[in-house]
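The methods section describes the discrete structure representation at length, but only in general terms. An entry of this sort, consisting of the sequence and the corresponding backbone structure tokens, reads as follows:
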Amino acid sequence: MTEWEKMLAGIPCDDRDRQLEGRRLVAKKLFRAYNKTTDDDLEQRNAILQQLLRNVGKDVYIEPDFICEFGSNITIGDHVFINFGCIIFDCGEVTIGDHTMFGPRAGIYTTNHALDPDERIQNVCISKPVTVGKRVWLGADVKILQGVTIGDDSVIGAGSIVTRDIPSGVVAAGNPCRVIRKITDADRLLK
């Protein structure tokens, strides 16, 4: 089993493996090219995203500077907006649902270095997937850690660090992020 296969299977792997490093270099070239584009370069941006990401839906808008580790483990649905400064470390699978919005400097981190110091100096890491549901809003500076699923229609408050699953249809915030309340009809601005 290659280190890439171990990584995707959630098995401890060597994070500094030569194959992984090569894949990172490909992603860096693509996201750096993307980040040099302007708002007038929509066709070029879309072409780069098609090369960089596993799957990108229609009407996806990602503000530069965007950074990812591999890109090829990221699936983005339709009508998604990702604001400035997003970082996605996609050693594990990342799935972002339709009509989802990311605030500035949002981050998704699917991997973690070994806690044991002897394993850590051997570059041992383990990855778990992250899923962000449909119609989710992540506020500015939200960080989502490995293995987390955020349910459809939820809002994650600015500055939150999401360490556990968040159910659908709630407002959640804090460090660690916790459910504050359900979203109800009383939250509608247009009545």
User: Anything to note?
Assistant: The chain has a mean pLDDT of 97.
